[in-house]
Design brief:
Strand content of chain B: under 5%
Structural class of chain A: alpha+beta
Strand content of chain A: 15-25%
Distance between the termini of chain B: 13 Å
Strand order of the largest sheet of chain B: 1-2
Number of domains of chain B: 1
Shape of chain B: globular
Oligomer: heterodimer
Order of helices and strands of chain B: HHHHHHHEEH
Helix content of chain B: 55-70%
Number of strands of chain A: 9
Radius of gyration of chain A: 27 Å
Number of helices of chain A: 6
Number of strands of chain B: 2
Strand order of the largest sheet of chain A: 2-1-3-4-5-6-7
Number of domains of chain A: 2
Chain lengths: 233, 231
């Protein structure tokens, strides 16, 4: 008679009570939660400052006259609002308005992205109002093959495409007058064409497509309202 | 992971120094245990990336092993994996924030592999096989040693890949403009080549040493086992 009375005891020792399980998980989650929140708050300012600096550096590279930058959002309704903290409203396009040392409007910079050979190629381009053209590009991020795809950073002939790449709008300002097109190396005839790097066609196309897609969306919203950006507020 | 403790050929419980150096050489995570291969092969395109990745992993290892060890009497075994993963994920998040605050360029270079530390077999393996059974100080020392061993392994691979693939070491050009980089070394196959090269070298050295003191019969390569290669 002793045996049946004893047998529940080892089982009770082995099985952990539901309460203990819940308590452990709650305590551990609470500790971890506190650690995460504290480190988030501690690094937030530095991370934000880093991101702003990186964006500014990229803008200065594509708009050589620029010496200060303001970040804006172009809403689907056509409105332009300063970019604040938090998530932008859906459909909003982020762009940077640049000013020279005297505070005069120096152009617009924005980011475009398209799939390259390995991954997304993200490019920043600078738009100058006086020639309605793109006056410089920089690569924000890419994972293209070293020695092949990454020639878009260094190839002089390729970069010459972006000294004055025509992105003029149609008369009704609804879209670009001519799509930005990447053409085979050596057959560029029009100012809106991009002469691809031979051997790195896929990456060259990604740059062109990224610029075209972004410009098609952004410029029709922006060009009618450029006066709004002229004053450095 | 292999056996419950490294006591295979030591009678006494390991001293603190032994705990610390275990991962540096005798059971180096990269070259002996062959754990955490995903970051090992993916981010070692340059020496600086390798060191950063190694140190990030070291921090996660040390902090999570400390916490796991400190809480080991509180954690019921039914929910231990869930608990370890929550703890590890916490410190990975901390590292993620920290790297963003330190350098955005580094953050871009390491990409998703920072977040993927959470799935690094080495970290969960150490928490489960060592920290859950040891007091906080030895557990943390062992984790730091393992982390530094991992960093060493990564840097040895990354250094070779950078020298051959980019003609530079820590970003300093070595060979002048005439050097034609071996581009394959900074592509994914290069990671396998260099890893294999080091493993071959260590195997040859180990065999030479074993042949030299054939008197003492010791099967050092027995430590080379692992349940979760890859990750």
């Amino acid at each position: 008679m002793n045996a049946p009375a004893k047998s529940p005891a080892p089982a009770a020792v082995q099985a952990t009570s539901t309460f203990a399980l819940l308590r452990t998980l709650s305590v551990v989650s609470a500790i971890c939660g506190v650690i995460i929140v504290v480190s988030y708050l501690a690094t937030l300012d530095r991370a934000k400052a880093n991101r702003r600096l990186a964006a500014e550096r990229a803008v200065f590279k594509v708009l050589p006259d620029a010496s200060s930058v303001k970040e804006y959002l172009a809403l689907p309704s056509g409105e332009i609002i300063p970019a604040g903290g938090g998530d932008p409203p859906p459909g909003a396009l982020r762009f940077y308005s640049a000013y020279d040392a005297a505070g005069r409007f120096a152009g617009i910079a924005a980011e475009g992205a398209a799939k390259g050979y390995a991954d997304l190629v993200r490019v920043m381009f600078g738009y100058s109002e006086s020639c309605h053209c793109i006056v410089g590009i920089g690569v924000v991020s890419m994972r293209e093959t070293p020695g092949i795809g990454d020639k878009i950073l260094t190839d002089k002939d390729f970069l010459a495409n972006f000294k004055a790449l025509d992105v003029r709008l149609k008369d009704d300002l609804s879209a670009l007058a001519n799509d930005v097109k990447v053409v085979k190396h050596g057959v560029k005839t029009q100012p809106w064409q991009i002469d691809a790097i031979s051997g790195a066609t896929v990456t060259s196309r990604a740059v062109g497509k990224g610029i075209n897609d972004a410009a098609q969306l952004l410029l029709p919203r922006l060009v009618p309202r450029l006066d709004q950006l002229r004053e450095k507020s | 992971m292999s056996g419950p403790s490294p006591a295979a050929f030591s009678m006494a419980p390991p001293s603190r120094w032994e705990e610390f150096t275990e991962g540096m050489w005798r059971r180096n995570p990269v070259f002996v245990m062959v754990l955490g291969m995903c970051p090992t092969l993916a981010v070692t395109v340059s020496a600086i990336n390798s060191i950063s990745m190694g140190l990030a992993t070291t921090f996660v290892l040390a902090a999570s092993c400390f916490l796991v060890s400190a809480l080991r009497r509180l954690i019921p075994k039914e929910v231990r994996i869930a608990t370890y993963i929550v703890i590890i994920a916490t410190f990975v998040t901390v590292v993620d924030y920290a790297v963003q605050a330190i350098s955005l360029d580094l953050y871009e270079a390491l990409g998703a592999y920072i977040q993927l530390i959470v799935a690094n077999c080495l970290v969960l393996g150490r928490a489960e096989a060592h920290a859950a059974r040891a007091a906080p100080i030895p557990a943390t020392l062992n984790a730091i040693g393992m982390g530094l061993g991992f960093t060493l392994g990564l840097t040895m691979i990354g250094g070779v890949r950078e020298i051959l693939g980019a003609g530079a070491f820590f970003g300093i050009p070595l060979f002048g403009p005439g050097f034609q980089p071996w581009v394959v070394m900074v592509l994914p196959p290069g990671g396998f080549f260099v890893m294999a090269g080091w493993l071959l070298l260590f195997a040859v050295v180990r065999r030479r040493l074993a042949a030299r003191d054939a008197g003492a019969v010791r099967s050092a390569p027995a430590a080379n086992s692992g349940a979760c290669h890859g990750a």
